[in-house]
Amino acid sequence: MVLAGVGLLVLGESATPCPPGGLLALDCGGVQRVALVVAPLAAILYVALLSAVVAWSRRLARRPNPDSTGGRDWYVLAVVIGVPIAALLAFNILAGLGWLG
Description:
Elements: H1 2-15, H2 28-61, H3 68-97
Helix pairs in contact: 1-2, 2-3
């Protein structure tokens, strides 16, 4: 679902032309290029990291003294803070590789 949403975002963003001026003094082509590169990587990182948290919380439930509430709490925490962390991580990875210009 996350990957499909980002796919629709990328399709919509790549189909829209940059307006000639506007309220923000941003380079539209540069911002659009960053969005088209960072958003898919952020979605992939989010799904991968969330899958790792789900696997880890399932292992918590299978221990001799299961901690089901702890696993659920970690899952909720990962869902809530995972989106901004995945976006920042994707931006930093791509900036470090020099792909953002």
